Amino acid sequence: MKFTTIPTMVALCLPFATAKVCLSQSDVTTLSTHFGDLVSGYTQKLANQTLTTNFMDYSESINTLIDSAGTTPNALLGLTFTSRANFETLSAAQPSVPFQVQNTWYNCDTITIRWLSTQSPQPVVGISVLQTVYRPRQGNATNFKINEVWAEFDSAAWLIDSGFTVTPPASNREKREVTFEA
Q: Which CATH code fits 21-154?
């Protein structure tokens, strides 16, 4: 073998050695399903399989629910969950709700989910963007975990489903103002 052939072979193999591992449709389906299952039937085991330890979540909608529509002052902007442990603590205390993935779109490391929660009396629709990282582990259904989530949904409908009431204006001429009562 000539020495000029070795550098050529190394150059040809180098892109494959440094290529980024990207999500597959199977990974997207698994992570989208697990994300929905964390809402509809939370378990710590599933959270550990699905979320990184330094998981973060940003959602003004969830912050509105935590804030109970202004009855317990809480900042709406900023982090909602600061870690997987924080998510686990707050999620374990929440009742399960129906959650259906309606559509998914993805690129190499990000999944966007349009979802529906058929709660009563108001259905809730939302969009969640899941940023993933490659974390190969034995025993998991995918080699990716969710590292960050950005989510928004109809928090007014969720509040109504949680027992809050909406008081409409007395007439159409009045300024439209929505108040919530627990």
A: 3.10.450.50
pLDDT < 70 stretches in the chain: 1-18, 68-75, 169-182
Would you say 55 and 148 are in contact if contact means Cβ atoms under 8 Å apart?
Answer: yes
Q: In angstroms, rounded to a whole number, what is the distance separating the alpha carbons of residues 143 and 133?
A: 9
Distance CA 131, CA 56 (A): 10
Side-chain half-sphere of 13: how many Cα atoms within 13 Å? 6
Single-letter amino acid, residue 176: R
How far CA 125 is from CA of 34, 37, 115, in Å, comes to 18, 16, 6
Domain locations in the chain as residue ranges: 21-154
**Token code pair at residue 104:** 């998914």
Q: List the one residue out of 105, 164, 108 whose CA is nearest residue 129.
A: 105
| C-alpha–C-alpha distance, residues 127 and 115, integer Å | 6
- For the chain, give the mean pLDDT: 85
Q: CA 161 to CA 127: how far, in whole Å?
A: 19
Give pTM, 2 decimals. Answer: 0.80
What is the C-alpha to C-alpha distance for residues 118 and 42, in angstroms, rounded to an integer?
17
